[in-house]
# Entry
Amino acid sequence: MTGGACTETFSMTSDPAQLEPMRAWLRTVLARYDVLGPDQSGLLTAVGELCTNSIKHAYEGVGGQPIQVSVTAFDDRLTIQVEDFGKGFDASQYVEPDLDTLPEHGLGLYLVRRLVDTMSREVGRPRGTCWTLVKYRRPRV
# Structure
């Protein structure tokens, strides 16, 4: 890919049944941009975790609410945004899990941070959360 960026978007609702169609779409998009193997698996996991967090926390399990996943491909990286319009993420309430205790939940953001090169979120939004993930592309050999 050369030149400008290309963005593709998937709109879903906050129904857990929507996670599989989102993953199928994302798998296809990532393959189109030659993101395969461990990088593809990692991004599928990271985006799935953020969408699941939107369902569970932003919308508190209420179905039918909007979640948008966008992938923007550049020559050197992919940028993925996961956006919801529910209850915003409260960073002051987040506690990184203690892996020595083998927690049963609370691992999502911990995993996401380790599966991508950078992770950020838009602050100061009146409603919802928009996460931005960046994964640098490996040069073709």
